[in-house]
Amino acid sequence: MNETNLSRTPTKVSADHIRDALDQLVGYHLRRASVHDLNGAVAALDDVGARPITMSVLLSIVEQPGSTSADICRMLGIKRANIVGLLQQLEARDLFLRKDDPADQRIQRLYPTETGLKTALDWLNRIRQHEEKTLRRLSLEERAELRRLLSLIWSEDTSGE
Amino acid sequence: MNETNLSRTPTKVSADHIRDALDQLVGYHLRRASVHDLNGAVAALDDVGARPITMSVLLSIVEQPGSTSADICRMLGIKRANIVGLLQQLEARDLFLRKDDPADQRIQRLYPTETGLKTALDWLNRIRQHEEKTLRRLSLEERAELRRLLSLIWSEDTSGE
DNA sequence: TATTGTTATACTCTATAACTATA
DNA sequence: TATAGTTATAGAGTATAACAATA
Fold first, then answer.
1. Distance (Å) from the C-alpha of residue B57 to the closest C-alpha of chain A?
2. Alpha carbon distance B17, A119 (integer Å)
3. How far is it, in rounded angstroms, from Cα A33 to Cα A47?
4. Which whole number is the average pLDDT over A104-130?
5. Which pLDDT does position B2 carry in this prediction?
6. Considering only CA atoms, which residue is closest to the C1' of nucleotide D3?
7. Is any atom of strand D within 7 angstroms of residue B103's beta carbon?
8. Which domains are seen in chain B, by residue range?
9. What is the per-residue pLDDT for A120?
10. Nearest CA-CA partner of B114 in A17, A19, A147
11. Residue A156 half-sphere exposure toward CB, CA atoms < 13 A
12. Which residues, 6+ apart, have CB-to-CB distance to A98 below 8 Å?
């Protein structure tokens, strides 16, 4: 019965309803591309004893001198608890200084040292070389478009602390 | 001395050399977008006791019945050791069956059950609803273009086992 | 009450090494 | 020698809860 099956609901689920499903999910490609890129970034920074997140924190301090650690956490979408060790590593290498805020004694404002500036530039150049490799099949226009589309996805993200 | 500074190498590193550096890195946007999307995907599957990677494995079995677990690992870019628990979860829910290969006794070929097909469709629909949210600011053309650009980045990845 | 910086801790994901059985 | 499936384990990343000091 129901041989003509005019109903939109199939009487039997078949694999035909799930064809190339994974390949059509943007999230799947996002994940694969992000992991691929991250692996390359980790390798690019391995020689200098840094990780991508370490570089992001240092770059934040360089780009926004005077930020607090809580500011940086909000900027990068990470938790306050998880920046502590990262800052300790950077501090042990004299890449930034903490200065107590005279107006608010809860706060430490972070400023890059001269070494921190040089190091940030070095790390950044390593990452740029790595990006040149991962993006070698994309034109400059495509790279800019990709950046634009990606930022449309996450830029309203308020989940980070 | 050297006031005109004709050299391309600055005598003093300044933060001016690192302006909007993080924002210009495609890898940074890749990471932020991927994390944002993944969080939504995790939430979308939470009700049904699945994770994105669990769904990916089930979809692989549905789309390529008769694959081995090693095949799926190569397809998804994950390690053989890490699929064992995922398969055990799916197996405990009767979503697929293992059949010994008569020609090669090392191999188990995986086939979805009827329940597995229905479940895959359900999970997929949940993910599609979630994607509609994360991609709401992108046109259909932009979504297709994003998928194309992302696959250009990772499609030659051979790092997965 | 809320925020900052911090500690402790748990959970997930991922990576490596080793083992067996088979080819 | 190489591959498949598995176990055990270690390392990152990330999450929550709690705390003291301060606003």
1. 10
2. 12
3. 23
4. 97
5. 38
6. B106
7. no
8. 24-131 (1.10.10.10)
9. 97
10. A17
11. 8
12. A91, A108, A109, A110
